[in-house]
Amino acid sequence: MGEKTKIEWTDATWNPIRGCSRVSEGCRNCYAESIAARFSGTGRPYEGLAEFKGGDARWTGEVRLIEKHLEDPLHWKEPQRIFVNSMSDLFHPGVKLEWLADIFGVMARAPQHTYQILTKRPDRMLDALRAGSVPDVALAFEQTYGQSWPPANWWFGVSVEDQGTANRLLPILARCPAAVRFVSYEPAIGPVDFFAAMDCNLAAVAEFDWIICGGESCPHARPMDPAWPRSVRNLCSDLGIPFFMKQMGGQCGHNDVPIPEDLAIKEFPQGLNG
Length: 274
Ligand code: SF4
Description:
By secondary structure, this protein is an alpha/beta fold. Helix content is 31%, strand content 18%.
């Protein structure tokens, strides 16, 4: 088995990269950053990658390949959905191209799994996918691994939190040549109109294969208006896009808001079950 997780839309997490830096408001209460800061002492797993500044956790901006975890999926025989880099961003600018190639190589060599790659930096994701789409690179990939580029079991997604991030990131995701393109609208800190973000082109919105919604859940959580996920649920229902309501959010444990019955939908793409 892979590394267990409470994230319901995946089975396991795999973190071959550690370290990140904030890129938008959605990162303000980044859970990975606080965990990293807690384990950043000398000899600890996140040494040099995060620290406490005035009591607040902060990434240092350094990013590192964790060699001992690079090949983890090769050892997990049972097929599972794997969230790649739940504690970082695979397309952070500090992730070297050769590290990306190593990680993609491991994914290709463990094709029994489904890989869920989620980023707040889709420009670099698009570059990586396009580099692979250049005929000789794609051919080399096919000849080495016997799989077409990009493999259908690699799902690519973006993380958005409000209309501004949706406007910037969704059109880039739409251009990614992936079998499954997904959107994580979490933490939802403002409403998102997917139709507006895609220049009022409904056919372009219908190209997304899965939308996950979630309110922020942490001690300083910013509240989500239930009207925001409801409008996304309606859009998904109209367009036949699988919808996954992860959580309403709240200030962790004691204050988390239960999911209302009409939003309690947990669908997966391609007819897959949870
Ligand atoms: S991109 Fe993700 S991991 Fe990186 S700081 Fe933002 S929320 Fe945290």
